[in-house]
Design a protein that fits this description.
2 copies of one chain form a homodimer. Chain A is mainly α and 106 residues long. In chain A, 65% of the residues lie in helices and 0% in strands. In chain A, α2 runs parallel beside α5, α2 crosses α6 and α3 packs across α4. The longest helix of chain A is centred in the middle third of the chain and has 24 residues. The first copy, chain A, is globular and about 40 Å long. The interface between A and B is medium-sized, with 24 and 24 residues. The structure holds a DNA duplex (30 and 30 nucleotides).
Chain lengths: 106, 106
DNA sequence: TTGACATATATCACATCTGACATAGATTCA
DNA sequence: TGAATCTATGTCAGATGTGATATATGTCAA
């Protein structure tokens, strides 16, 4: 599991800010981090473009403001599932999600 | 939550085979199902192309054969997280994942 | 300053997902 | 036929993600 390793790192005082803050990530691991970052940025952009607050959006998604903040921060405690679901709710199409996912980051 | 609704449907005797077997799905819900199906197909294709069994691949992924079977079946009990992780492990790039995600299905 | 609003961060009980395991079906080959 | 191999399906305890909540920080106008 990947999440387990992440937890280990976090327990050790690590924070995930951007993909570059980690070295020694396997290709899969860094790709995963990059995806998370790319999707979370797209989410924030879309929410801001829609002119709604995290609180409002949380209600639309059936989630909470705190989780939206974590979503947009690329916090590793949020799943890609929720990230993608959020993008769809904020108006992205499947294709949009794919584009966002592939978008180069940092 | 979406998973909750899914569970409700499953409890009611539903099975997800393909996206079309559901009607009355919200756009987000059906997009999500389509994504799952598209990714799972890509996964199976890649694994078969690599010429390895589910059991072998499970070991590479750090998972189990039964879960690989469920992954490839698009079983709603598996997360997009695991699905995407599996694709990366089987050799897909971030771009490949994006392409697979957007691929039209059935 | 203050107050109002937006966002960030921490915690927690509970829902969901997980790998492991058991076992059933499918297919192939002697 | 039957053994061997691969895949499908069900179950479960334990790991992980979840929304809710509280509270801190940030921003901006009065």
């Amino acid at each position: 599991m990947d999440a387990k390793k992440r937890k280990r790192l976090e327990a050790g005082g690590w924070k995930i800010g951007n993909a570059a803050s980690f070295i020694n990530l396997s290709p899969e691991e860094s790709a995963l981090v990059d995806m998370r970052v790319a999707l979370s940025r797209s989410l924030r952009e879309r929410r801001l473009a829609a002119g709604i607050t995290q609180t409002t959006f949380a209600r639309q998604l059936g989630s909470s403001q705190s989780r939206i903040a974590k979503l947009e921060a690329g916090d590793p405690s949020v799943s890609l599932d929720l990230l993608i679901r959020a993008l769809l709710v904020v108006g992205a199409s499947r294709k949009d999600v794919a584009t966002a996912l592939a978008r180069r980051v940092a």
